[in-house]
């Protein structure tokens, strides 16, 4: 099993501010994909849709200002059963976000792509919480010929 | 051992164009760090310096338009002995870059940070080769409170 790891920090904001962008439909739609629907409570499912497809995430944990954990229950076969961890911590004026997309079976080329896309979406999340301006799909940053 | 993986593709350019940005001092200085010196031939060492420190890379392989491989021989202890792979492939109008920073001992928090920083520098490389405008240190994109 292999994982995608990232770290961002949001300046001048709190982990509660970041949590709002991870645990509400409107927040998620403002940095990941505009077509986000469903429920963000523990045990509920969130449907993320992109021009090329989408993912359904089951919310396994959601603790305000601390953490969110999703399991992928629908979408691209390579993602099914993987888990996405969001761990939040305040360091003085910075809200630190530790990200892990855990449980890929193999380090396939699609995983390389997703790692770079996750980084660009995390920078979209940072821009949203700092300045109110994310870049969710379909207005997202293109990283390669796959999207 | 754990690895950082990324994938970008440069539109309207060839793998030879990308290779120039990976295998010349001027090219490297235009997307990673302005303070880049040394030699880029096989067996030579490149010194990359940043405001906070730096890395020395030994060039293990350098094949025009195909691949570059470095081994970290100086710098942050967590990086020493790790290897950085650049594999290039043309897909129609796109020059695809598969990146791997291989051989981290543990998935420490610093590795999360470096994964996101690598993504932002890879997008700097893409912008350089597509449009002539990279964002090397010290003009690089800040991802968190570490840089």
UniProtKB/TrEMBL annotation, chains A, B:
<comment type="similarity">
    <text>Belongs to the AHA1 family.</text>
</comment>
<dbReference type="InterPro" id="IPR023393">
    <property type="entry name" value="START-like_dom_sf"/>
</dbReference>
<feature type="domain" description="Activator of Hsp90 ATPase homologue 1/2-like C-terminal">
    <location>
        <begin position="16"/>
        <end position="130"/>
    </location>
</feature>
<dbReference type="Pfam" id="PF08327">
    <property type="entry name" value="AHSA1"/>
</dbReference>
<protein>
    <submittedName>
        <fullName>SRPBCC domain-containing protein</fullName>
    </submittedName>
</protein>
<dbReference type="InterPro" id="IPR013538">
    <property type="entry name" value="ASHA1/2-like_C"/>
</dbReference>
């Amino acid at each position: 099993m292999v994982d995608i790891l990232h770290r961002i920090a949001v300046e001048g904001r709190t982990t509660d501010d970041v949590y709002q962008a991870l645990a509400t439909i409107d927040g998620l739609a403002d940095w990941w994909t505009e077509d986000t629907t469903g429920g963000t409570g523990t045990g509920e499912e969130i449907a993320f849709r992109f021009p090329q497809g989408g993912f359904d995430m089951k919310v396994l944990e959601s603790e305000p200002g601390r953490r969110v954990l999703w399991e992928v229950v629908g979408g691209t076969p390579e993602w099914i059963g993987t888990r996405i961890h969001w761990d939040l911590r305040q360091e003085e004026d910075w809200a630190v976000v530790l990200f892990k997309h855990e449980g890929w079976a193999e380090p396939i080329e699609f995983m390389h792509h997703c790692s770079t896309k996750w980084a660009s979406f995390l920078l979209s999340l940072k821009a949203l919480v700092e300045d109110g301006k994310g870049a969710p799909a379909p207005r997202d940053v293109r990283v390669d010929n796959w999207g």
